[in-house]
């Protein structure tokens, strides 16, 4: 008979595939019988999945963020003693790994966005901020993102009216978004860019897209973007983690990004096998692979839009889009209804 502590110990072993065949069989049986235990196990897997496979480096200070989290947490001085022991052990493991990582650099590039700003700074007239931009570009080439950020931040703070201050502010926002994955700070940085340097902000559609995405993610404390980062970081290269993101945030822009990532993986796999799928065929194959009706419904909408935008086939678009009405999720049904209304009106989706 397994007690609670025994189950938690095996749960920790399971994430590293260290269970015997008999233990694995019994453990899977218990997970299937207990949704709460399954959720607890998936949360642990998600936490462990965030750890890198090998030591890498962080180029920014973790301490301010840790302090902020502690300050925003419980005011009860005894809160730490009520954390379950197995969770505390996991947190300690993460902290230990984090302490090691402080001595290096972290960069997980987002494949759906450009990395860094494309504007050249090599021929800019000499001003305090243009000099900082050149120095930051050199530091970025060395992957020293932390120092690049400090150089730009110092230059903008001291010279907010410099002709290139807007460009530097844009680069600061991009660093938060792309390299550091500090979405609250990225949100603030893009808002600053919009209000203080509107010409620079409006010159790049990417700025507008990112701020819109961050405005949406703010409603869930940026958890949607963090979940997408976790799915992208999974080493198994599977699609299940992306399905979880879409199922949790089905009507969001993050769900659209997750679908793009899933489609790309299906295309990559097909090309590796010598197949010549196009994007629409990859999305249709992806739909066949997904089990969650919410994810299938969301894919129906995206496939319908693709038939309309790229194939100019309103009949197929309507047929596929109508299937999304059957998924049962109110937000996805509402999206499908909006899409079908656009088809009726003949407007661009």
Domain tally:
3
Weakly predicted, low-confidence segments: 52-57, 71-83, 93-120
Total strand count, please? 0
Helix content: 55-70%
Report how far the terminal alpha carbons are from each other: 57 Å
The biggest beta sheet reads: none
CATH top-level class of the largest domain: Mainly Alpha
Tell me the Rg in angstroms. Answer: 23 Å
What general form does the structure show? globular
Question: Which structural class best describes the helix and strand composition?
Answer: mainly alpha
Overall pLDDT metric: 80
CATH architecture descriptor of the largest domain: Alpha Horseshoe
What share of the residues does DSSP label as strand, in percent?
under 5%
CATH topology category name of the largest domain: Serine Threonine Protein Phosphatase 5, Tetratricopeptide repeat
**How are helices and strands ordered from N to C?**
HHHHHHHHHHHHHHHHHH
How many helical elements?
A: 18
């Amino acid at each position: 008979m397994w007690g609670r502590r025994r189950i938690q110990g095996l749960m920790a072993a399971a994430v590293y595939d260290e269970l015997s065949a008999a233990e694995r069989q019994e453990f899977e049986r218990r997970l299937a019988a207990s949704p709460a235990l399954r959720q607890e196990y998936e949360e642990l897997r998600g936490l462990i999945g965030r750890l890198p496979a090998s030591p890498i480096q962080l180029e920014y200070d973790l301490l301010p963020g840790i302090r902020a989290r502690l300050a925003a947490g419980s005011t009860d001085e005894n809160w730490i003693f009520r954390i379950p022991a197995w969770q505390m052990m996991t947190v300690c493991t993460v902290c230990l790994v984090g302490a090691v990582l402080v001595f290096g650099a972290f960069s997980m590039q987002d494949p759906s966005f450009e990395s860094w700003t494309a504007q050249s700074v090599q021929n800019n007239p000499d001003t305090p901020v243009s000099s900082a931009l050149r120095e930051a570009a050199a530091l970025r080439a060395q992957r020293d993102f932390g120092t690049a950020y400090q150089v730009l931040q110092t230059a903008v703070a001291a010279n907010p009216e410099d002709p290139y201050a807007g460009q530097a502010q844009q680069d600061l926002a991009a660093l938060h978004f792309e390299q550091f994955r500090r979405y609250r700070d990225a949100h603030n940085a893009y808002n600053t860019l919009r209000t203080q340097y509107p010409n620079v902000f409006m010159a790049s559609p990417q700025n507008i897209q990112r701020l819109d995405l961050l405005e949406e993610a703010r409603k869930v404390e940026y958890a949607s973007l963090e979940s997408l980062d976790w799915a992208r970081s999974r080493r198994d290269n599977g699609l299940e983690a992306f399905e979880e993101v879409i199922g949790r945030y089905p009507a969001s822009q993050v769900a659209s990004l997750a679908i793009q990532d899933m489609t790309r993986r299906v295309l990559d796999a097909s090309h590796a096998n010598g197949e010549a799928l196009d994007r629409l065929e990859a999305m249709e194959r992806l739909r066949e692979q997904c089990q969650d009706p919410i994810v299938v419904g969301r894919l129906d909408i995206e496939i319908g839009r693709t038939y309309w935008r790229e194939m100019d086939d309103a009949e197929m678009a309507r047929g596929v889009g109508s299937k999304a009405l059957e998924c049962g999720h109110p937000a996805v049904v509402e999206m499908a209804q909006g899409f079908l209304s656009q088809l009726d009106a003949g407007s661009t989706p």
